[in-house]
Amino acid sequence: MKTKLKVLMMGLILSSATFADYGAIAYSDSTGQWGSSYGFFDRNTAFHVALSHCGVADCEIKVWAQNQCAALAVGSFGIYGWGVHPFLNPARDRALSECFLRADDCYLVADICT
Questions:
Q1: For the residues of 82-106, what is the DSSP string, one character each?
Q2: I need a surface site. Which of 9, 67, 72, 112 has the fewest CB within 10 A?
Q3: Whole-prediction pTM value?
Q4: What is the pLDDT of residues 79-100, one digit of tens each?
Q5: Separation of alpha carbons 80 and 69, rounded Å
């Protein structure tokens, strides 16, 4: 019985590590365009999809998450803040708080949960 339990536990541990879920938010400082992705098994694919959804050459990944939520807030003059948290509202709050440390006109641009 103990052996079966060990095998089951190892299977659960390996399963959760195998199914990592990645997402990203890309943003263009010059145009304000953004793109996002979520639900991908590797970070590079999540980055590529977010950048392609953004659609302009100067898009950059501003925040990414693995099995969490992420949010991006922006203000004037290229100021931005990001947040990552297991839950969406705290991720949004962190993004806005980070942005408001350096700007007074911040707003949420995008958020994702993986």
A1: EEEESSHHHHHHHHHHHHHTT-SS-
A2: 9
A3: 0.82
A4: 999 999 999 999 999 999 999 9
A5: 17
Name the 3-class secondary structure at 18. helix
3-state secondary structure of 31: coil
Domain boundaries, the chain: 18-113
Residue 2 corresponds to which tokens in the numbers above? 């103990």
What does the buried/exposed string (b/e) look like for 14-29 if buried means 16 or more CB atoms within 10 Å of the residue's CB? eeeeeeeebbbbbbbe
State CA 109 to chain mean position distance. Answer: 12
Distances (CA, A) of 16 to 11, 13, 58, 64, 84: 9, 5, 35, 19, 20
Asked if residue 109 has pLDDT above 70, the reply is yes
Q: DSSP 3-state assignment of 53?
A: helix
Beta bridge partners of 108: 73
